[in-house]
Input
Amino acid sequence: MHSSPFSDAGRASVFDVIIAGCGPTGAMLAAELRLHDVRVLVLEKETEPVSFVRIVGLHIRSLELMAMRGLLDRMLEHGRKRPAAGFFAAIDKPAPKGLDSAHAYLLGIPQPVIERLLEEHATQLGAQVRRGCAVTGFEQDTEGVTVELADGEQLRARCLVGCDGGRSTVRKLLGVAFPGEPSRTETLMGEMEVGVPQEEIAAKVSEIGRTNKRFWLRPFGKGAYSVVVPAAGVSDRAEPPTLEDFRQQLRAVAGTDFGVHSPRWLSRFGDATRLAERYRVGRVLLAGDAAHIHPPTGGQGLNLGVQDAFNLGWKLAAQIRGWAPETLLDTYQAERRPVAEDVLDNTRAQMELHSTEPGPQAVRRLLTELMDFDEVNRHLIEKITAIGIRYDFGEGPALLGRRLPDTDVKDGRLYGLLRRGRGLLLDRTARLTVGGWADRVDHLADPTAALDVPCVLLRPDGHVAWIGDDQQDLDAHLSRWFGKPAK
Output
C-alpha cells in the first residue's frame, strides 16, 4: 500500500486520533475508527455521564446505522417504538404508507442510555475514554497534533476531531467561523411532579396546544411529567432555569402552574442556528454539534451527529491506514455540510410554523392541507428521518449516492454483512471480483437480494457507490473510493 500523507514519521504519536467529547457523535466515531484498528483516545471534560433522563428519538436512518453495526437490538431493549409521523412542525399526520425501510418507526430512548450504549460499544472495540479531561489547546504540524489538557498534560496524535458540542473549544481554537443566527426565542424543558389531576392537565394542554406547539405536559412514569413551556426571554444557556421560572411561565401561558414541584432536572434551549464554515482544517476536523446547531424541532440533532460520525469514520480510518484516495477525506465536508444546511433550513421553517402569529398560523394551516397529499407528507418524513439523502457522486441511476435499505440476502440480512465497516459488492452476475481490494471490500456473489440492477458497490456507510456489470468500470470505482489495490 502507498504511504499515508498522515504518516507520523517525525514525533511519535501515541494515538492515531484524539476525539474531544464523548457524546453520541464522539462515541460513534471512536467505534467506527476502531473497526479499522485505529488507535483512539476520547477525551470528555465531564467526570460523569449525564444523569438527567431526557428522551431522545432515533430516526429511521440512525436505526439503520445501528442495525449495520449490530447495535439495534441493544437499543430496542431500552427504547419505545413510536410511529414515524408528526415530526414536521408537530403537524399531526400519519406516516405515509410503505416507507422504504425495515425500521420505519421512531425509537424513543433515554439520552443517558444511548450515550452509555455507544460508549460501551466503542470501548468494547478497544477505544480508550478518559473523563475529566478538558482540551484547552492544540498545535498541529505536518506530522500530527499536540493536544494540551487543562492540567497541562500534552498528548500527541495524528488527528484531532472536535465532537465537543455547540460551544466547541476545538472549533474556537481552530478559528473556524460559526455564522448563523443567535437565539430569538427560548424554551424551558424539565421533568417534575404536578399537583393537579391528570384530566385537568390533559384538557388545558389540548386547548392551548391547538395554537402553541411549544407547550406541553406529558406523563413520564412514576408520577412525573415532562414539561415544556416558552421562556420569558433569551438568557445565558449556561444558567439552568429555576422551578419558579417554570411556575411563572406556566401561569403566563396556561393561567395555572399546575402545582409543579420536586423537579428532577430543568434545562432551557434556544433556536440559535449556526453552521461551521469548514469541517476540516489540516489534521483537525469537526463533527456533530461542534459543526452545526439548530432548534430541536423535528428531533434531528443527535441523529445528524451520529450520521456525521458514520460518514467520517471509515474515511478518516482510510487516511490513517494509508489506503485513502487523495480526495477521500475531502468528501466528508462535501457530503455532510449540505445535509446540515438542509437540516438548518427545515428547522428554521418549522420554528416559523410554531409561531402563534396570524401569518405563520395561516401558512401552517395551508401546509397541513398539503400534507394530505402522500407525496408531500412522504417528502417531509424522508427529509427529517434522513432516508431521502442522496450524495452527489456524479451522473448515474437514481439509486447512485443513496443508501440501500436492509433486505434479505443469501444466508441473512444485508446490514448484517456491513458489521465490520468494510465496503461490499453485491454481485448478481457472479462473475465480478474485488481483486486487490479484498482487504477493504467484501464480495457477495449471487446475493439473491431484491435488486433490479446487476451489481451494486456499497461504501461502509451503506451508500451506493457504483451500479453496473463491467469489471473495468468497477475497478475504477473501487480505486475512487478504496484507493490503490494491494500488491
